[in-house]
Amino acid sequence: MTGTWINAAAVIIGGFIGLLIHSRLPERHQRIAFQGLGLVTLYIGVSMALKSHNALILILSVLTGALVGETLKLEDWVERGADRVKALFSIRDGRFSEGMVTAFLVYCMGPLTILGAMEEGMGQGMELLLAKSALDAFASVALAATLGMGVLFSVLPLLIYQGGWTFVGVFVASNLSTPVVDEISAVGGILLLGLSLKLLDIKQIRLLNFLPALLFAVGYWYLFQWIGIG
To answer: What integer pLDDT is reported at residue 14 of this predicted model?
Structure first.
């Protein structure tokens, strides 16, 4: 998990720089930077969603995952965890939870997260994660400048999620073909589309409740292959 630890360090360093800028950045500049980030996220989300080879897998994954996530109340669990962290460190930041969740989704929904973590788990190096770390460092500057301290603490779910994919690489990555990874990335793209709507202040969506959709994308792909669809 060396690559993931480097990634977390890059986020923290970029986040600290963003916090220094935050106190000196006028609100109108913070707002336009936030909107710019939303537009970029919209573009990335669309490009990722188009990677799906079977729209039915994408639709079923998102719908089933959303229902399961809502039943489990995943976003409520994460928000309570964020509130505990906020209280533990006596942080006075009204956007702490929003910053933590938003940054986690930006950092972890892209294909580099899955491919890079699995590649490291398979012992094939961490070049992709190093590239991702550089990108995330710059993103964390913009995020922390607009959303504050919560961006730094997004490294906690990042370590869990990205580290989980590393262990997937250790045990089962040889069974995950490129089409499977594409379906996972497509679902991640849908989540980024939802995130862009939040960043652009168009619609507030409980995106963490959609996370199980990533797992359902794998399950539906194998199911469709087994029954000869797709």
So the answer is: 93
